[in-house]
Amino acid sequence: MSSFLRARLLISALAGLLAAGTFAVVLPSGPAAAHGNVTGPASRNYGCYERWGSKFQDPAMATQDPMCWQAWQADPNAMWNWNGLFREGVAGNHQAAIPDGQLCSAGHTQSGRYNAMDAVGDWTATTVGNSFNVRLFDGASHGADYIRVYVTKPGFNPVTQALKWSDLDLVSQIGNTPAARWTQVSGGVQIDVPVALSGRTGRAMVYTIWQASHLDQSYYFCSDVSFGGTGTTPPPTTPPTTPPTTPPTTPPTTPPASSAGCTASFAVTGQWQGGYQADVTVTAGSTAIKSWKVTLGYGSAQAVTNSWNATVSASGTTVTATNAGYNGSVAAGSRTTFGFIGSGTPGTPSLTCTATT
To answer: First-to-last CA distance in the chain?
Structure first.
């Protein structure tokens, strides 16, 4: 079944339940299937989707991630449509098209859907070193006429200041790059733009302009960072192309399973006829770990059609996941996540997490 047909069936089924008064939930419209976003350091709306898409009604967000909370309250579609933050017909005149203070919403694009991205406050920041990569995911394989990466000048404080064009320094760019030269990943292509700075510490913002090689579409992304890391902080390898359709409002039903230095917990974040989307959280114990492996045991045969942040495979009733190259090392008490799209019935698998320390 195509993803388009599956989405139509999902929306029809949910609409029927809503009409019958069976339950009430904010119905995501689903991301526009033709675009992309900066997945690392995660842009504001993609980061909010990544952290809270499976639990966007959780009141804990209000205190744990208040800037994402205000964004979800303002317009959930800014996150469900994490790959649609663009303008058309700018003709390269970005500063004329987007006023100061509106850079993160691309000048209130898409009828104001992304306006909350401009809100000034303590957005969750990704820790990076002075050398890092900006990773852009392109779900439609448009490629780029150019990609430009800016970083705010020293002294700019995104917690208290609205972003202006004069706050930005151009730090990296690439020219015309067809999609065939990007890295093929499930669901699209991705490309890394290297950034090398010196002497930076503290909070800052990364601003990325992607001029897609598709009509005249310009994409604009704000990413919050904190300088102080020791190296590149890679993003997920493949962002999910279908958002959760029935986000859970309660904690995962599968309890954490533990072995050799790590625990794992499982949650179904979306389900449809013949398939489901699952997220797994891996948490290191009292000692830092260097690599991890999670085994999920089901009561029926499984198949995996897509995955991100891990290498995931299925054999009979067992699904096995091993860390990606960038998220095997987990500090003591810290966590990382991975996800996958499965075929079959998700059930409640038994979990085993093993790690090397």
So the answer is: 42
CA distance 126 to 226: 6
What secondary structure letter does DSSP report for 119?
A: -
Burial class from Cβ neighbours inside 10 Å (0-12, 13-18, 19+) for residue 299 reads: exposed
> Which tokens in the block code for residue 71?
């964004």
Tens-place pLDDT, residues 229-268? 544 444 444 455 444 444 443 344 444 444 458 999 998 8
DSSP state of 253: S
What would the pLDDT profile of 126-144 be if each residue is shown by its tens digit?
A: 999 999 999 999 988 889 9
> Is the per-residue pLDDT at 273 higher than 80?
no
Tell whether the torsion through CA atoms of 283, 134, 46 and 151 is positive or negative.
Answer: positive
Concatenated DSSP letters for 272-331?
ETTEEEEEEEEEE-SS-BSEEEEEEE-SS--EEEEEESEEEEEETTEEEEEE-TTSS-B-
Phi and psi angles of residue 22, each rounded to the nearest 5 degrees, phi first: -65, -40
Instruction: Tell me the torsion sign for CA atoms 84, 90, 95, 100.
Output: negative
